[in-house]
Design a protein that fits this description.
Blueprint: E1 30-35, E2 45-52, E3 55-59, E4 62-66, E5 69-76, E6 79-86, E7 94-99, H1 104-115, E8 123-125, E9 131-134, E10 137-140, E11 150-154, E12 164-174, E13 180-181, E14 187-194, E15 197-198, E16 207-210, E17 216-220, E18 245-247, E19 251-262, E20 264-271, E21 280-289, E22 294-296, E23 302-305, E24 311-316, E25 328-336, E26 340-350
Parallel strand pairs: 1-13, 2-15, 8-12
Antiparallel strand pairs: 1-6, 2-5, 3-4, 6-11, 7-10, 7-12, 9-11, 12-14, 16-26, 17-19, 18-26, 19-25, 20-24, 20-26, 21-22, 21-23, 21-25
């Protein structure tokens, strides 16, 4: 799938009028086209397909994994009006027509040259099936300064186009009139850029959530307490953020033993703002590798803030602390700061 970001732009083209005599009374009587978007020479519409990475989030009180993938989002203006106007009140009707000029390819080449676009930056002609010009003719009635606007509209499916930059010029011509078009305001350029946005990246590894009594078992260290009636330490790993655990000792310890060694990715704690004695909880993880060696986070106690609603605070330990070539057979938590309420601990490992 190709991602796209479509951009409309109105650009001025310059020229000169070769006249031998100038009627002073008509010197400033000009017709022109303009948009109601600021700045008046630009407008944009974008359709972006993003390759998103897998993610973990709380839904309906549980941690849920999203596999990620391609998501199409739209922003900006899909169609916009271009107005046919004069800078004076016309005495008789003035008709204008709007179309892609016959020398469009040459105009695109000149546009690239004028702006210094080369290689991948260069623009190509936007295929005719990708846009529509509505109201291709407009008339400014006598006694007025403005006719019906014409509309340039992008078609659906632009995100499926080949990567690259595209442009199409649309010119205004006056039908049988001695009124001149204002220099630089007789043409619009419509631009479309097709871009691929890969947030996931090629090296993103898939993750899985580990569950109590499925992937591991745990024990509470002697002298530790993770509950105060009516709460229970059974709420630590029950995959529900709607209950509350209570660390009633200043320091409490947990040992997690994995049924099979795992490649750990990150640890998560679901927090409330219901801490009675402070606004930060600290915990210090250590672990034993499959080969019997040990590791820990050193002097880096991992601190977490409180939240006003159940939110996962993640600790990415895979890159900074873990030996990537070793799997972990057991994990030990020391949790500090008595009186702190939290509702769930989560352990996430990489898929094998």
């Amino acid at each position: 799938m190709i991602a796209a970001s479509a951009v409309l732009a109105v650009s001025a083209v310059t020229g000169c009028v070769d006249t031998e005599e100038i009627n002073i009374a008509d010197l400033y009587r000009k017709a022109y086209i303009t948009t109601d978007i600021y700045p008046q020479t630009e407008g944009q519409y974008s359709a972006t397909t993003t390759n998103t990475p897998p993610s973990l989030s709380i839904k309906d009180g549980h941690l849920v994994k999203s596999e990620g993938g391609e998501v199409i989002s739209y922003s900006g203006i899909k169609s916009y009006k271009v107005y046919f106007r004069t800078n004076y009140t016309v005495e008789k009707a003035l008709a204008g027509k709007f179309a892609v000029p016959s020398d469009a390819e040459e105009l695109v080449a000149k546009y690239n040259a004028d702006h210094g676009y080369t290689g991948d930056e260069e623009y190509r002609m936007l295929p005719s099936e990708c846009y529509t010009i509505r109201n291709g003719e407009s008339t400014i009635p006598a006694g007025s300064k403005e006719g019906e606007p014409f509309v340039v509209e992008f078609s659906d499916g632009l995100e499926a186009m080949e990567l690259g930059n595209y442009i199409v010029p649309i010119a205004c011509t006056l039908d049988g009139s001695d009124v001149e078009l204002s220099e630089g305001q007789d043409m619009v350029f419509m631009k479309f850029s097709n871009i691929y946005n890969d947030e996931a990246g090629e090296d993103v590894r898939s993750e899985r959530i580990l569950y109590n009594n499925v992937d591991f078992t745990y024990t509470v260290a002697d002298g530790s307490s993770f509950y105060s009636d009516p709460w229970s330490d059974a709420a630590l790993f029950n995959d529900s953020v709607n209950d509350v655990c209570f660390c009633s000792n200043y320091v409490s310890g947990l040992t997690i033993t994995f049924n099979e060694p795992v490649s750990l990715s990150r640890l998560g704690m679901v927090l409330y703002d219901s801490n009675a004695y402070g606004n930060t909880i600290y915990f210090w993880p250590s672990w034993t590798y499959e080969n019997g060696t040990e590791g820990n986070v050193g002097g880096n106690y991992l601190g977490t803030p409180g939240y006003s609603s159940p939110s996962v605070y993640w600790f990415d330990i895979s890159g900074m602390y873990l030996d990537q070539d070793q799997k972990v057979s057991s994990l030990f938590f020391q949790i500090y700061n008595s009186g702190y309420n939290f509702s769930e601990l989560y352990i996430v490992a990489f898929d094998e």
